[in-house]
Amino acid sequence: MEEFIDNLPPMDLMRSEKMSYVQLIIPVESAHRAISYLGELGLLQFRDLNADKSTFQRTFVNQVKRCGEMSRKLRFFKDRISKAGIVSLEHPVMQPDMELEELEIQLAEHEHELIELNSNNERLQHTYNELLEFKMVLDKAGRFLFSEKNHHAIGDDRELEESVNSNHEFIDTASLLEKELRSGFSEQSGVRFISGIVCKSRVVRFERMLFRATRGNMLFNQAPADEEIVDPVTFEKNAKIVFMVFFSGEHAKTKILRICEAFCANCYPVPEDLTKQHQVTREVLSRLSDLEATLDAGIRHRNKALSSIDYNLTKWVTMVRREKAVYDTLNMLNFDVTKKCLVGEGWCPIFATPTIQETLQRATYDSNSLVGVIFHVMDSVESPPTYFRTNHFTNAFQEIVDAYGVARYQEANPAVYTVITFPFLFAVMFGDWGHGICLLIGSLILIVQESKLSKKKLGSFMEMLFGGRFVLLLMAIFSIYCGLIYNEFFSVPFHIFGRSAYKCRDATCSNAATVGLVKYRDPYPFGVDPSWRGSRSELPFLNSMKMKMSILLGVAQMNLGILLSYFNARFFGSSLDIRYEFIPQMIFLNSLFGYLSLLIIIKWCTGSQADLYHVMIYMFLSPTDNLGENELFWGQRPLQIILLLLALVAVPWMLFPKPFILKKVHTERFQGRTYGMLGTSEIDLEVEPDSARARQHHEDFNFSEVFVHQMIHSIEFVLGAVSNTASYLRLWALSLAHSELSTVFYEKVLLLAWSYDNFIIRLVGLAVFSFATAFILLMMETLSAFLHALRLHWVEFQGKFYHGDGQKFKPFSFASITDDED
Prior knowledge:
Layout: H1 2-6, E1 19-27, H2 28-41, E2 45-47, H3 61-84, H4 100-156, H5 158-164, H6 170-181, H7 185-189, E3 192-199, H8 203-213, E4 219-224, E5 229-230, E6 237-238, E7 240-247, H9 250-262, E8 266-267, H10 274-330, E9 334-336, E10 341-349, H11 353-366, E11 374-378, H12 395-404, H13 415-430, H14 433-448, H15 450-453, H16 460-467, H17 469-486, E12 502-503, E13 518-519, H18 538-571, H19 575-606, H20 612-621, H21 636-655, H22 657-671, H23 690-695, H24 703-727, H25 730-754, H26 759-797
Antiparallel strand pairs: 1-10, 1-11, 2-10, 3-7, 3-8, 4-7, 5-6, 9-10, 12-13
């Protein structure tokens, strides 16, 4: 058996790639090019040999600062291009590569030009805003003055008001009053005014402050501005209010001006003379027209400069990111001043060693270096990182496993089995081939559009869906398969594989749901017989079937997990784990729940009416009692007693031997009595599990710690065997919930609406049914089944063998550089 296992071909993804710890001695003249080529290759993870040094004490800190400064300039360009509304286009024609120094000079020139253009544009925009505000103040203030003077004249002579307010002579009379009162209005009345403009959001507080400061001795007029003012810095439009404050006294004027300054209100002088007002307005309009032309020319020039920058922006950003990544990596290497070389260490897969050597030789040749890069393999006491070679299909399943924890180096990888078991357990809970077809269509759309969607920046939800498109595909396929077994198409059964095995007791079929059906032919060839739908025993039958099926699937998957722990122990050469963990765990689990699975299968095959609840309960309470009508096969009672004794023996088997054997081995090793026997010892110390091997490097062997750890592990397995088996009943519960929800939406929404002979009611019913199917059954139920399948794999399956305490292989690669690493 052992020879057969050893001769099996290695399974892809079953074990992580074998890693080598390598050292590189790189001449200074070819260091930059060598690291750049390795970044393009992406198969070498460098170790930081300068971890004890701060960032500012490293060799290439100045180059990193320069790259950071260039990244800042590129972000500034990108921000300005975005604010200017310039649409970035893809430019397939690439310019010749340039050196970093040349790019740095070019970026500095572009930044200086843009800053100068922006500064000029902001000054012009600020002047334009002032003139625009002045124009609106002149327009509104003229109306304020007219109304105030007219009110003053009418207050002095009410008889004149009565005589001139008749017919259509009001306008002409007002004009005469303006002519009489327009000179010396302030001098005659002693009333002065200040006009200006303030933000609309501050006008209420502004008016209240003016009223309190002047103790109510003022008149405040306001009117909304006709146009919004554009902020020259943020490009936001702000609503403004034109105001005019009438007051008396020099002291009040000082207070009002200070308040205007505090509220960022701009004050503008408005002449009382109408002729002067018109003259000033004409001057303002003329200057506004000139400024508009100047602003348009400046914006065109700025947009032209931004467009030329945008043409090469993507290439520059990529180049700066790569250069910064190269210098960050060079800072992880030791700089040997005497030999003028850089020394680096890191991990790489063994299969990539020839490729890395060829890449380093090419870097030496391209940099015209007389000395080549020295590359050799070293020994390391550290645990290597974990690296699995995945593709578009397997990557999503590997990410599901890695979300729980990265596999220990060379540990059995659950992703190999998750590819099948995860979508299958999802489908057991989601089984409906109508809903499965909907998921299949969605996954196929994502797969067909893969080339387009991979180039777009997707939202978090769409990015998650796109990354798991193949998971969604398998989930849909298995959902269709399980839906055919359950015979549910949006909860409706179909006679797909032939005629039903049951018929009604009479022609009317009126008592099918109460009395039941009669079997008259062979069973339905595949899946659930469609005649079960609506029958009296539909729910008891489906509940019993799905519950027992859940237990069978759970016990099978837990046995697979324990079996993988055997392959792990065998791979690492740990005979202790095989003898005192794997064997008792298999005995305990299968003595109880493996036996229960056997009873389920026998009951299905024989059609027995035995109560399995009674059998399992009294197996513990009264193992020697006669089973009576619950006996499924000959010799069942003695078999139950033997299995119960085996389960009881398995618990101390897991708990006691391993800690005492480890203590004995440690004592013999450090007392020097059996050094000659180590080679022939039953236990190979060099291939002990990592935890045991780590302890044996220390002379202080903490037996109590080892014993407590083993006791916790044993208790966890014993209790987990019960709780984990019960946890698999979620397969039955969610399958039942999904089926019942589908039935409710179909019967109580769609069929109810279709029973009315009204087009609108039918249309509303169809819309509600479609909404419920899409958002509740296809979205919420999919997410629920996904999370429950995730829990079953992380806890019930992986908990039996998977440590998940490894380190992920993170090679230096330009492909892994993201936008957040600027």
